[in-house]
């Protein structure tokens, strides 16, 4: 049946109203579902959202497409009015003026459902309702000002559950491990339950809790309940801590324990904020008692290397415990406790008992470990450095003082220094304090024996620079000279070294026994760099004399070629400047006429070119090449490299077959001690070209000497002039006396120089100035003697009123 116009409008109104309601309900349901899903997301995201919310409770609006105040249809506001083709549609949406009213028992019913879900979680049973439904219920209650009561009710339910768990931990249990596992299970269940409860009550946690600073978050509330009802119980706390300490002690004695259980329970104590108060203090006390007793026992029972290995192992074990289950805040006090009980309290015993042995045996690995461990302590390295210095002084003094070790002293010192340098670099990490201590210690002991080390170092250098020394290559010799210079720096009496070095250098240059000119000049350069040009000026002058002598001899040979008479001998002369070279005692010996004639010819040649100069012949370092005829099968002619004194003795046998000691002395006029040494080299050495009767190693009065006709040797040229390179006792004493005399001159010059500048000075100040200027060690008594000598010679005078005051006499 066709409808009227009014009926059609009413039908349209009813249809529109119904559609609007359906769309609104669908939108609201979609909105609620989306919110519930979003709020079940990560806690961090939800907390950041909650912080950005400006209102305590989210406002919701219910919308209607019709004006509820009109019972009929308002044609002017209806979107269907004037719905002509081509015109736009207009929809006006307004709020309800009356909000919906909740049922009277809504809060209680909703809480009952939430409580039932919480209890199901506590009892690990399935939840009847979906999480989205429960989350929406919490949101609705919070939106209608029910947050405070909801929070209190939830806390009450959780507290009842936690309180009910306390009883199982206060009953008697004999097995500590089972007890700890039960407590850990309870803790893990509690954490899991609180996480799930919080996911349901997340909206409450993000709104009400965040906006009330006096209210704890749901997670913190759960921790507070567990702490107050379970772990704060004195019985529970004591049994828990004792069980943990028992497990750790078992592991320290070598047993295998459950690290995951320890880690979980210690993390529990840390989360409950009682780790330091309840556990750490007792743990450190137990650690101190354990390692204190262990250190006292093992440091005496075990050798130092074994003890150090044990300490290193213990430190590594404690570091692993921190890594596996202990809280990281325990690292510093725990390691400090172990270091103190096992290292700091026994540093003196360790060093006194084992350091010397380790150093003597060159135990590099053990010394490295010792340094690394003592580096952990407060004063460990300081004590180690002192003991290291004491060992160097003790060992070095033993080497230097013992006169029986003079022949090997320098080599032992070089080996000792090389070993210590290696230890310093490898074991002690090139520590600057240890390096300074090493230098001071060497300087201390090497000068306890005055003058002798300097003399022996000079002789050692001479031995290495002689010709025929095939022990080392040029590179090795250069490195050896560098090591010798290190010892040289420690020596105070450098003038003693200079005197002996100059004497030996003169022999090497004049006899032609220098191994290498480059090595000689390299050593000279090192000395100059170390002591300055004044120290090496005379040594450099010796090399210049040798170069000039070569030029003079070249001119002399050319001169001799133009002479009418020929000679059967070749002459080579070295012109030496007296101030550069050592002082030699002038000797008058009987030379063959041929030699005398050659000497006179050279003297005339030289003085003709250098008028005003004086030549003084020094035969002690002369050497010759002599041909000898023996009754040997085959080649019977040998060439002998001998000294001038040996030459004079051998030439006598051209005129006779045998001579006594007295006859040889009269014929040659060689000084007695030198003659005996010469005869010993010819008759008692390896190459015996004359025969001594009676046989023996020493030359005695009345001995007879015969020419060895049956002499045999595999070489054609034989060296017998090594006797010149050997130092006699007289030469040694003469050199020492010359050094002492030179020191007196230096002291006198220094006193006069100081007094001339200061004019007046007290005795103590004068002595102090002298110690600062003199390069060699000197005793106060020696200085006093030199001052008295200068006063007697009127260089200075005493004050009339004060005898300790001196005045310079101009």
From TrEMBL:
Residues 1-85 are annotated as: Disordered. Keywords: Biological rhythms, DNA damage, DNA repair, Host-virus interaction, Isopeptide bond, Phosphoprotein, Ubl conjugation, Ubl conjugation pathway. Residues 64-85 have a biased composition (Polar residues). One of its GO terms (cellular component) is Cul4-RING E3 ubiquitin ligase complex. InterPro entries: Cullin, Cullin-like_AB, Cullin_CS, Cullin_homology, Cullin_homology_sf, Cullin_N, Cullin_neddylation_domain, Cullin_repeat-like_dom_sf. Pathway: Protein modification; protein ubiquitination. It comes from the Eukaryota. This is Cullin-4A. It comes from Strongylocentrotus purpuratus (Purple sea urchin).
């Amino acid at each position: 049946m066709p409808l009227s116009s009014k009926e059609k409008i009413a039908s349209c109104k009813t249809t529109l109203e119904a559609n609007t309601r359906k769309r609104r309900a669908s939108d609201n349901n979609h909105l609620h579902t989306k919110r519930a899903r979003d709020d079940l997301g990560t806690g961090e995201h939800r907390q950041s959202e909650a912080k950005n919310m400006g209102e305590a409770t989210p406002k919701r609006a219910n919308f209607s497409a019709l004006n509820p105040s009109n019972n009929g249809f308002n044609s002017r506001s209806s979107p269907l009015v004037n719905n002509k083709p081509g015109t736009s549609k207009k929809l006006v949406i307004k709020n309800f003026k009356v909000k919906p009213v909740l049922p009277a028992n809504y809060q209680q019913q909703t809480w009952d459902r939430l409580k039932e879900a919480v209890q199901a979680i506590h009892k690990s049973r399935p939840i009847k309702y979906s999480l989205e439904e429960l989350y929406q219920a919490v949101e609705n209650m919070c939106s209608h000002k029910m947050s405070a009561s909801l929070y209190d009710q939830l806390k009450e339910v959780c507290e009842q559950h936690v309180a009910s768990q306390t009883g199982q931990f206060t009953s008697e249990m004999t097995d500590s491990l089972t007890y700890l596992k039960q407590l850990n299970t309870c803790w893990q269940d509690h954490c899991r339950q609180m996480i799930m409860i919080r996911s349901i009550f997340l909206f409450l946690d993000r709104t009400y809790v965040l906006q009330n600073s006096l209210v704890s978050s749901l997670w913190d509330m759960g921790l507070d309940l567990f702490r107050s009802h379970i772990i704060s119980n004195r019985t529970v706390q004591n049994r828990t801590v004792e069980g943990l300490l028992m497990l750790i002690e078992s592991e320290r004695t070598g047993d295998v324990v459950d690290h995951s259980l320890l880690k979980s329970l210690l993390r529990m104590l840390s989360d409950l904020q009682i780790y330091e108060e309840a556990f750490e203090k007792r743990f450190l006390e137990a650690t101190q008692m354990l390692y204190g007793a262990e250190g006292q026992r093992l440091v005496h029972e075990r050798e130092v290397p074994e003890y150090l290995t044990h300490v290193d192992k213990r430190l590594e074990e404690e570091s692993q415990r921190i890594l596996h289950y202990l809280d990281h805040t325990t690292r510093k006090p725990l390691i400090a406790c172990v270091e103190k009980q096992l290292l700091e309290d026994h540093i003196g015993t360790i060093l006194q008992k084992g350091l010397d042995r380790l150093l003597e045996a060159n135990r590099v690995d053990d010394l490295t470990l010792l340094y690394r461990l003592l580096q952990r302590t407060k004063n460990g390295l300081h004590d180690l450095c002192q003991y290291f210095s004491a060992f160097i002084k003790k060992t070095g003094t033993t080497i230097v003082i013992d006169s029986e070790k003079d022949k090997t002293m320098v080599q032992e010192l070089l080996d000792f220094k090389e070993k210590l340098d290696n230890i310093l670099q490898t074991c002690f990490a090139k520590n600057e304090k240890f390096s300074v201590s090493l230098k001071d210690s060497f300087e201390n002991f090497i000068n306890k024996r005055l003058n002798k080390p300097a003399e022996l170092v000079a002789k050692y250098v001479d031995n290495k620079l002689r010709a025929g020394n095939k022990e080392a290559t040029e590179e090795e010799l250069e490195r050896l000279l560098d090591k010798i210079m290190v010892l040289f720096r420690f020596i105070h009496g450098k003038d003693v070294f200079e005197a002996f070095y100059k004497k030996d250098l003169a022999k090497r240059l004049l006899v032609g026994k220098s191994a290498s000119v480059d090595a000689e000049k390299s050593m000279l350069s090192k000395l100059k760099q170390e002591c300055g040009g004044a120290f090496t000026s005379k040594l450099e002058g010796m090399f210049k004399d040798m170069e000039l002598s070569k030029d003079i001899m070249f001119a002399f040979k050319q001169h001799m070629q133009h002479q009418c008479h020929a000679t059967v001998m070749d002459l080579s002369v070295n012109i030496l400047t007296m101030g550069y070279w050592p002082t030699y005692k002038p000797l008058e010996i009987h030379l063959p006429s041929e030699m005398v004639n050659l000497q006179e010819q050279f003297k005339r040649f030289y003085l003709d070119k250098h008028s005003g100069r004086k030549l003084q012949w020094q035969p002690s370092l002369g050497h010759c090449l002599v041909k000898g005829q023996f009754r040997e099968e085959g080649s019977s002619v040998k060439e002998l490299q001998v000294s001038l004194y040996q030459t004079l003795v051998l030439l006598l046998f051209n005129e006779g077959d045998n001579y006594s000691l007295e006859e040889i002395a009269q014929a040659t006029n060689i000084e007695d001690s030198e003659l005996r040494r010469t005869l010993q080299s010819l008759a008692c050495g390896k190459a015996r070209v004359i025969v001594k009767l009676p046989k023996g190693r020493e030359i005695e009065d009345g001995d007879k000497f015969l020419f060895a006709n049956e002499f045999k040797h595999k070489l054609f040229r034989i060296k017998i002039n090594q006797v010149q390179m050997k130092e006699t006792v007289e030469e040694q004493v003469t050199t020492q006396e010359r050094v002492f005399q030179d020191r007196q001159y230096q002291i006198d010059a220094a006193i006069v120089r100081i007094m001339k500048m200061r004019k007046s000075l007290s005795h103590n100040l004068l002595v102090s100035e002298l110690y600062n200027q003199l390069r060699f060690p000197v005793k106060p008594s020696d200085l006093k003697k030199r001052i008295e000598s200068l006063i007697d010679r009127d260089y200075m005078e005493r004050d009339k009123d004060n005898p300790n005051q001196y005045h310079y006499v101009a």
